[in-house]
Amino acid sequence: MARKIILATHGNFAQGIRTSLELICGKSTNVEVICAYMEEAFDLGKAVEKIMLDNQKNELLIITDIFGGSVNNEFFKYVERSNVHLVSGLNLSLLIELYTQLEITDSMENLIIQAIKTSQETIQYCNLLKAKDEEEEF
Fold first, then answer.
1. Which class for 30: exposed (0-12), middle (13-18), buried (19 or more C-beta within 10 A)?
2. Which residues does 60 contact at the CB level (< 8 Å), separation at least 6?
3. What does the alpha-carbon distance between residue 138 and residue 136 come to, in Å, rounded to a whole number?
4. Are strands 31-36 and 59-64 parallel, antiparallel or unpaired?
5. Which of 40, 66, 133, 134 is 20 to 30 A from 103 in CA distance terms?
6. Which residues 6+ apart lie within 8 Å of 23 measured at CB?
7. What mean pLDDT comes out for the span 80-106?
8. Which residues pair with 32 in a beta bridge?
9. Is the pTM here over 0.90, yes or no?
10. What mean pLDDT is predicted for residues 77-92?
11. Phi and psi torsions of 90, nearest 5°
12. Given its phi and psi angles, is residue 26 left (phi above 0), alpha (psi -120 to 50 degrees) or beta?
């Protein structure tokens, strides 16, 4: 069973973040994107259904932009499948950790939990860090 990452977002975010991933990690062959609603005739349900049909024998790590958004909700219909792992809150640090560990992890669940924790720690309000550094200098 191959492992694949599906990046699914509103607009071109998925393509843009894949470009950033490839800039840092090199060309990705196991990452697909859905850039939802970029064409008037776009049908999210059909796009998701096609991915699910094409990847029945693959383990899928699907990362969406917004929890509770239409893209996430469409994939949420498939979370009971044993080959589907759905994560919301796509950001570059999360994606890099998941991508670089995808093929070597024994447990997708543990990898996802750890990557989310690490990613949350990278979200900082830097102004407060600067103020804290200045206070510590005294």
1. middle
2. 3, 4, 5, 6, 51, 83, 84, 85
3. 5
4. unpaired
5. 66
6. none
7. 97
8. 6
9. yes
10. 98
11. -50, 130
12. left
Provide the CA 115 distance to its chain's centre, in angstroms.
11
d(CA 47, CA 11): 14
Q: What share of the chain is helix, strand, coil (3-state, %, to 5)?
A: 50, 20, 35
Which residue has tokens 């977002």?
Answer: 9
Strands annotated E in the chain: 3-10, 31-36, 59-64, 84-88
The CA–CA distances, whole Å, from 133 to 31, 74, 120, 121, 123 equal 39, 44, 21, 18, 17
Write the CA distances from 53 to 33, 47, 70, 86, integer angstroms: 16, 10, 20, 16
How confident is the model over 34-69, as pLDDT tens digits? 999 999 999 999 999 999 999 999 999 999 999 999
